[in-house]
Amino acid sequence: MAKLLILGGGTAGTMAANLMRAKLDSSWEITVVDADNAHHYQPGYLFVPFWMKPSRVVRKRTKFFNDGVTFVEDAVTRVEPEANTVHLASGRTLTYDYLIVASGTRPVPSMVEGMAEELERGEKVFQFYTLDGAAELHDALEKFEGGKLLVHISEMPIKCPVAPLEFTFLAEDYYRKRGIRHKVDITFVTPLDGAFTKPVATRELGNMLEDRSIRLTTDFQVESVGDGVLASYDGRELDFDLLVTIPPNMGQQFIIDSRMGDASGFVETDKHTLRSVRWENVFVLGDAGNLPTSKAGAVAHFSAEILVENLCAAINGKEPEASFDGHANCFVESGRGQAMLLDFNYETQPLTGTFPLPFVGPMRLLKPSRINHMGKLAFEQIYWNMLLPGRPIPLPSAMMTAGKKFPKED
Ligand SMILES: Cc1cc2nc3c(=O)[nH]c(=O)nc-3n(C[C@H](O)[C@H](O)[C@H](O)COP(=O)(O)OP(=O)(O)OC[C@H]3O[C@@H](n4cnc5c(N)ncnc54)[C@H](O)[C@@H]3O)c2cc1C
């Protein structure tokens, strides 16, 4: 029997397994390996510090695999790509004809001096990129009666690069509703040179921070955390009473141990075909790769159909010809019951305009609106019921430029 092996049963691995099952006949065995049987809806981590119950974001992984997909609950410890073999923590080995790496990314606080210890202490430093962290932060936000709140990104890339900004806007709104906003001094601290990465989005998001009297500290390359002080390599020190940090994000340890990735553990991937640049029978989906676009579930979704087409071509002895354009689509919660929407790809930066229909919308790009917020909340049900099972969602995987406003050339 021919074997397709998928490492990771999160957003990307689950979608890939179900979509490939629909394509391959019964001479193919499809196996997904994951370290546990708990699928987390990670976009929910953003809301857990404010109002969402932690239990709402977790469901059994096995509920989401279609018939004909085998699930192995075990941790991958090493891959030997030259031998088409994967080693598991239990001592078991699995072989494959084709491999999809879908093992995502993880926060690694130990990369910053003092950060892991401060998070462990759980007094002034918190994160929401893990479910436990988000639940602890809920209590910390509730207890906080005023002082300096820093929301901080350690380095790029991180998954969902807009989530720290969303958290900042939601925290501002939260303290406003509690009537103590005037006592909470909020600063958004980023290693980037502005609120976001591309000029139009940076301007719009920067204006929103300013409108809400949120300070912005840019080009901050963090060196250490400790004693209520966040320090940068260029000698700046920021005092805080509460720090919400996004630790550095890295690929999984087994990618590093197997020498399959770059220095941060991300697998080098052809940005158009989604095939590994080093092994012809290895494809990569989701955050595990080094594509120059956002690490986001939406990207995994838009790229999944390209991967499926190219993997099927490779299996049939053809060259992979489908090309992913880097399409990313992110809702940005902006507080006050509204959200913005960002839509971009490798070539085109996030612009203002309408989505998905040109000039009609109903969603507005890069402007806060109620309907965008409703779209963000609706995504949870779409995720569980349509995206993971691989049901068609009526959105084109490639980005459309009609209806978008391009900045005038100087
Ligand atoms: C706070 C937050 C908010 C977000 N909001 C959004 C949003 O609004 N929209 C959006 O599109 N995206 C959002 N994301 C990002 C989105 O969740 C991820 O981009 C998406 O889950 C990536 O899918 P993936 O399959 O690549 O990785 P994951 O879903 O993380 O799956 C990776 C899987 O690999 C498994 N794994 C790892 N190591 C091993 C090992 N050694 N052995 C076996 N299994 C292993 C893990 O257990 C996991 O199940 C958000 C993320 C966070 C943290």
**E-strand count:** 25
Please report the distance between the alpha carbons of the first and last residues. 60 Å
Tally of alpha and pi helices? 8
Strand content: 25-35%
Which class best fits the helix and strand makeup?
alpha/beta
What would you report as the Rg, rounded to the nearest angstrom? Answer: 21 Å
Q: What can be said about the biggest beta sheet?
A: 5 strands, parallel
Please state the average pLDDT score: 95
The side-by-side strand order for the widest beta sheet comes to: 5-2-1-9-20
Query: Which molecules other than protein and nucleic acid are bound?
Result: flavin-adenine dinucleotide
Tell me the helix content.
Answer: 25-40%
Low-confidence stretches: none
* Shape descriptor: globular
Offer a concise description of the structure.
The protein is α/β, with parallel strands linked by helices.
What do you see in this structure?
With 410 residues, the chain is an alpha/beta fold. A five-stranded parallel beta sheet has the order 5-2-1-9-20, with helices on one face. Helices cover 25% and strands 27% of the residues. The protein contains eight helices and 25 strands. The protein has helices at 11-23, 115-121, 131-143, 163-177, 199-211, 253-257, 297-315, 370-387; strands spanning 2-7, 28-34, 38-40, 58-60, 69-73, 76-80, 85-88, 93-95, 98-101, 106-107, 125-126, 147-153, 184-189, 215-217, 222-226, 229-232, 237-239, 242-246, 249-250, 282-284, 328-335, 338-344, 352-357, 361-365, 404-405. The chain is globular, with a radius of gyration of 21 Å. Bound molecules: flavin-adenine dinucleotide (FAD).
